[in-house]
Amino acid sequence: MTKPYRQLASALFSVLLFSQVTTADTAAKVASPNIIIVVADDLGWNDVGFHGGDIDTPALDKLADEGVSLNRFYTTPICSPTRAALMTGRDPMRLGVAYSVILPWDNNGVHPEEHFMPESFRAAGYQTAMVGKWHLGHAQMSYHPNQRGFEHFYGHLHTEVGYFSPFANMGGSDFQRNGETIYDEGYETFLLADEVTRFIRQRDKSKPFFIYMPFLAPHTPLEAPQQLKEKYANINTDLAPARSRHTDATRRSAKAQGRPSARPVYAAVVDAMDQAIAQLLTTLDEEQLSENTLVMFFSDNGGAAYSVGGADNAPLRGGKGETFEGGIRVVSLLRWPAAIKPGTVSEQIMHVFDVFPTLAAAAGVEMQNNKQLDGENMWPSIQSGQPKPRSETLFFTSEIPIFGNFNFAAIDGNWKLVQEVKQTLVETKTTNWLFNLAEDPNEYNDLSAEMPQRVDALAKAILDWRGLHPINGVRSKMAPPPGWRAPKNWADYPRSLESLQDNSAPTMAPTPFIEEILDRQHGRRGRVTYDCDRGPELTIPCHSPAVKAKSP
Fold it and tell me: Which residue among 8, 53, 178, 429 is buried most deeply as judged by most CB within 10 Å?
C-alpha cells in the first residue's frame, strides 16, 4: 500500500475509532442524565407565551422550542394530591391524599411505607435536592423531605408562606434548610432560583443530580417586585368566561363589589417565576450541562381562575379545584437535547403519576418500589411521538373548599364524565356531564342525556375508585380543631424519629380478624386497612397488591 493510501486508511480508522468512542460516551451520558422537575403552583393554561397568552414567559417558550410540549398532561385539581402522585407514581386516592390538601392542623402525610421517586434515583447514585414547597406532611419527621429521599431540602413545609420575608404560615416561621430555620431575605421565587444555582455549581461533579423545584408561584397571596407590578398594571383584565358556575360567580361578585382584578399582580408573579426558570437554564448552559439534563415543567393543577386567583385557562373550561379540563389539564414541557427532538408536541394522555416510571425509564434508573404503581412508562411515546392508549381509566376529585361538595371526573379513552356530588345533612344531589374529548376538547357539548348507559358505567367506576380511600385520609376541613394553636416555628413542629415508635399505629380493631370484618363493613365508604383494594364486588381479602416489575 502506498504512503497516501496508508495515511487515508489510518485517518479512516481514527475517525471510526473516534466515532465509536463518541457514540459510547454519548450513550453513557444519555444513560445518566441530570433530572430537574420544575412545578408551578396554579398556573393557567393561557398564561404562557407559547399558548398565546399575554404574560411574558420567554424561558418557558424556550423550553417549548427546544423540547416537547406535553399537550395532554393531567394532574389532580388541587395541590397535595398532585405532589403525592408525582413522588410515588401512585393514585392519591389510595394514599389518602385525594379530596383535600394537607392543612396546617392536619397530622396526615404520605405513609412512610410508600416509596418516593428520589429514593430510587439516590439509590442509583444521584445527588438529590428539593428546593421549594413541600406540602406532603409536617407533623412528624417520617413525612419530612429529608426522610423521603432528598439529601438536601431548602424551602417550606407548607403553602401560602408569602413571597417576602418573614416567610410564615399561620404566624409560624416556615423557611428551613434541612430541618434548621433560616432567615434568608428577598423575593421567594428568586431565592429558590439562587439556591438551585448554588446547588448545581457546588455539586459533586462525579455524580448526576436529581432536583425537584416546586415554586409557590403563582399561588395566592399574590405579591411581586414593584417593577413587575408596574409592567403589568394595564394588562387586560376582561377574561373569557370560565364556563364554570363557581369560578364565574366569584368573578361577577368581585366586579359588582368594585374590587380590583387580581390579574395584574398575578401576571407579575408569573413573569418573576419565568425569570427564575431562565436563571436555572442559564446556569445549566454555563456549567455545560444543558445537553444532558432532562428538564420537566408542569403546573400542579389548573390555574386559579376565581376572582382572587387571577389565572386564565381559556379555552379550557373551569379551573383549580374543578374537574373540567381547566382544572386538571395543565401546561407541561420536557426538554432533553440529547434525546428529544426540539419543537415537538405530544398528544399522549399522561397523568402526573406517570412521571416516576417515565423518568426512571428515560434515565435507566431501577425503580425500588414494592407497591403496585398506578403510573405507566410514557417514555417510548414521548420519544416516538406516537400516542398509545392508556390501560386504565383516569380519575380526578376535589372537595375543596366546601366540605361534602365533591367534584369528580373519569376519563376513559375519548370519553369523560364530570360529576358533582353535593351532600347536605339530609340529602345528596348528583349532577353529571358527559363529553367526547376527541370532538369537544373544551367541553361545550354535554352528551349525558343522550348516552345514559355510558354515564352509568363511568359513575359506577368512580364509586368503585372512591372505595380505595383510607377512612382517615384528608378531607376538606377548612378550619382547625377548636382551640388548636399553630407553632411559632414550623421547623420545630415535626416529631423527631427518636420520639416516635418504630412501627405505624394499628387500627382500633383488637385483632386482624376484626379489622377484616370492619373493613368489609365499610364497603365503598373507604378502607380501614391501608392499601387494600377489595375489587368492584368488595369480596377480595385485604392483602398488599402485586408488585410491578421494578425496572421500566
Answer: 53
pLDDT band at 20 (very low <50, low <70, confident <90, very high): very low
For the chain, what percent of residues have pLDDT higher than 70? 93
CA angle 29, 34, 38 (to 5 degrees): 150
C-alpha–C-alpha distance, residues 534 and 538, integer Å? 5
How far is the C-alpha of 372 from the C-alpha of 468, rounded, in Å?
Answer: 14
H or E, element range at 462: helix 452-466
Element holding 30 (H helix, E strand): helix 3-31
Distance CA 4, CA 10 (A): 10
Which of these three, 324, 350, 384, is where a domain ends? 384
**Residue 543: predicted pLDDT:** 56
Mean pLDDT calculated for residue range 357-369: 97
Whether 19 is covered by a domain: the verdict is: no
Is there a contact between 246 and 306 (Cβ–Cβ < 8 Å)? Answer: yes
Distance CA 82, CA 78 (A): 7
Q: Which residues contact 223 (CB under 8 A, 6 or more apart)?
A: 162, 163, 164, 265, 269
Give the whole-angstrom CA distance, residue 200 versus residue 233. Answer: 35
pLDDT digits (tens, 9 = 90+) for 313-348: 999 999 999 999 999 999 999 999 999 999 999 999
Residue 497, classed as helix, strand or coil, is helix
Whether residue 182 sits in one domain with residue 40: yes
In a domain, 424, yes or no: yes
Q: Which is more confident, 24 or 527?
A: 527
Is 515 in a helix, a strand, or coil?
A: helix
Length of the chain: 552
Cis status, amide bond into 536, omega within 30 of 0: no
Cell numbers at 531, concatenated? 392499601
* 293 Cβ neighbours under 8 A, 6+ residues apart: 33, 34, 35, 36, 284, 336
| pLDDT given at position 512 | 87
Residue 271 located in a structural domain: yes
Report the pLDDT value the prediction gives residue 432, as an integer from 0 to 100. Answer: 98
How large is the angle between the packed helices 79-88 and 355-363, nearest 10 degrees?
40
pLDDT at 24: 35
Cα separation of 33 and 300, whole Å?
A: 24
C-alpha cell at 251: 368573578
Model confidence band, residue 535 (pLDDT cutoffs 50, 70, 90): confident
Range of the domain at 121: 31-384
Are residues 375 and 492 located together in one domain of the fold? Answer: no
For position 539, what pLDDT does the model report? Answer: 84
